[in-house]
Amino acid sequence: MSNEIKVHTQEEYGLRPEAKEFPMMLVLSFVYVCNAGCPNCPYNNSEIRETYKDAMLMSDEVFHRLADECGPHGSLLRLSGGGEPMLHPKAVEHMLYAKDKGCRIGLITNGSRFNEENLTALIAAGIDALEFSVDAGDAETYAIVRANLDWDRLNESVRMAVEIRNRLKSPTRIVTSIINQQGVDVDKAEAHWSAIVDKVQIRKFLTWGYNEDKSADDSAYLPPEDRLPCPWLFERFNVDSRGDVTLCGEDIAFKERFANVMERSIKDIWLGPEFEHYRSLHLARRGHEIPICAACPDWKYRSWQYNYWKVLKDAETASPHK
């Protein structure tokens, strides 16, 4: 595994310069359907999907509302959430719409639904990042941690994406992510994928409040006793398929939702009293007074410096067409 020294704290905390007027990233719970049976997925270990039977897919109205407002700000729409985004029948259409509006796009995918046609469409449009969740470096491990998916198809999809990107000389960055969990040889996995993609990201195992903790590395990024502010409140905006907004991505059930993008603008919500209240408590080292933060088992794994933006920068540096 990489011996890179990772810095996680900083001198001062608060809204990043790029996020003072508008969120840098919108994390979209784009779908609540999945074709994988991953044993450590919080959606497979909860009843959350049952509560979204009326909104298993993000509607055109909600997605267009997000893309239309985010485009002028160049915000990154990160498609993830309760399942496999490419199972949305309008996944490619929506991403192309958002790119046309000026958004950046980061797609997190298990890679099972790609073919040459849809990969070419996305990469030709300059999708900013294709992140394949792989979690293994061999077929045997993959069959366990990524149940119901096919190792050979994954490898074919990743290699196809790289080949198309290189041929088109697209700026698309291609990343694989590996969760550092029990039963996974992270070094072997990193060696396999680093020979293929721009960047391999080693992720901490998160419980999301639903999983049994099976981390293979529980060393903290932010020492819990210091109660340092969580960076997610200062850069990320979380929206579900209904357009509801919650305080933090840790709230994957959106139990603490407090606004809806169909009723208020994103900017109004981002700069509004709710976020101001939550951020003020974190900056005063009193984030634990917020119920969801007090119960958060994963706060210690946040990082102010080694984050998604750092991964994208590393991938861009490594890409042959940066």
Give the SSE string.
EHEHEHEHHEHEEEEHHHH
| Broad structural category | alpha/beta
The percentage of residues in β strands lies in 5-15%
The percent of residues in helical segments reads 25-40%
Shape by Cα distribution: globular
First and last CA, distance = 25 Å
Number of strands: 9
Q: How would you characterize the largest beta sheet?
A: 9 strands, mixed
Provide a count of the helices: 10
Average of the residue pLDDT scores = 95
User: How large is the radius of gyration?
Assistant: 19 Å
Order of strands, main sheet, comes to 6-5-4-3-2-1-7-8-9
**Which regions contain 5 or more consecutive residues with pLDDT less than 50?**
none
Short summary:
With 322 residues, the chain is α/β, with parallel strands linked by helices. Helix content is 30%, strand content 14%. α1 runs parallel beside α2 (91-101) and α3 (116-124) crosses α5 (151-168).
